Amino acid sequence: MKNLLHNTALTTLLLATLQSCSSPESSAAKNRSDSTAFYTANDFTTIKKTDAHVHVQVNDSVFVNQAIKDNVNLFSIDYDDVNEPPPMEVQEEYALFLQKSFPERFQYATTISVRKFNDDDWTTQNISYMRNSLAKGAKAVKIYKVIGMSLRDKQNKLVMIDDPRFDSLFAFLEENHVPVVGHLGEPRNCWLPVEKMTVKGDISYFTQWPIYHMYKHPEMPSYEDQISARDNMLAKHPTLTFVGAHLGSLEWNVDSLAARLDRFPNMAVDMAARIVHLEVQARDNWQKVHDFLIKYNDRLLYATDLVIIEQSDHTKAIKSAHETWTNDWKFFTSDEKMTSLQFDGSFKGMKLPKYVIDNIYSKNARNWLGVFKGE
Ligand SMILES: [Zn+2]
User: Fold this and answer.
1) Which residues of 275-298 are buried (b: 16+ CB within 10 A; e: fewer)?
2) 15, 79, 190, 226: most buried by Cβ count inside 10 Å?
């Protein structure tokens, strides 16, 4: 849902002047699990980071150049949605162009077709498309929320992700050790009345687009139905490597997310477009969010959901990317008091130790998605 994603740009704040605090650096190995070693704002450009969920759909290098300046590797994710052009084949062309131009900095995930779901040879078509993408360098396969939210079969029945028609695709991915990035469901706010929503971006989006506001559509599956379908799918495929996009749609409560991570050892999550939900929870209970990030530090992938398409204002998109990356770095590495345009009140940065930052910002993407392995 791109408009929702764009709203996250509202969270970007001017980076306050941060004091430098340089201390003699011990060896990386020594600091690996040292919980008293921390990065500062000055380390932002020297530490290589991975943004594990972006959508870069342009045939030029301006966005990647900004990522290089900010020392960010990009993992761009294709998806297939009849309402959101361009088609996945075109998205893959963009990805291949950038992967070829910046092999050290840019990698991508392919996807499966939902537009052709009702074709008789849909499974064969998708396996063949995935094989082809993997041969060209795709590192993972994206499964998109249209499954569960809008995809209908020939009987006009909504298709959920635990539907047996997906079993052979997941079996193929399990057998070939291909990770899945699964965006399933929506933020829980989507099922709440506007006055109960926790972040302003959701309030304005669902006010503008009541058609997508599930609170107003009781005939549609509930939030719990979406989460259960995803859980059922994971239970059916215990050897599938699964990265739940957007904090696995459990963004509203770290306890709830922790319970899923405990139940499914093959599941990690990316933070794309949902860091604001960690921030709002940090406003209310800093320690709880901090403890969660420490405990699950090997299951969380830094990601933003930044989008750039041909029609975007490139200057604006690049500025927004830089602000988002620096602001998020400040949230995770410092203990400064911060505010967000998305909610009232203030919160304190997480000040996570270096070994946690290293995991969240690069090692987990390498381990779970197999990306940027040469580093
Ligand atoms: Zn996305």
Assistant:
1) bbbbbbbbbeeeeebbebbeebbe
2) 226
Query: Would you give the DSSP letter of residue 109?
Result: E
Distance between Cα 53 and ligand 1 center (Å): 6
pLDDT at 79: 95
CA–centroid distance, residue 55 to ligand 1 (Å): 6
For the chain, what are the domain ranges? 2-8+40-369
- Provide, rounded to the nearest whole percent, the portion of the chain with pLDDT above 90: 87
Q: For domain 2-8+40-369, give the fold.
A: TIM Barrel (3.20.20)
pLDDT digits (tens, 9 = 90+) for 261-285: 999 999 999 999 999 999 999 999 9
- Whether the bond between 353 and the residue before it is cis, its omega within 30 degrees of 0, is no
- Distance from the alpha carbon of residue 79 to the mean position of ligand 1, in angstroms: 8
Calculate how far, in angstroms, residue 320's C-alpha sits from the geometric centre of ligand 1. 16
What separation in Å is there between the alpha carbon of 27 and the centre of ligand 1? 36
Q: Give residue 124 CA to ligand 1 midpoint distance, Å.
A: 26
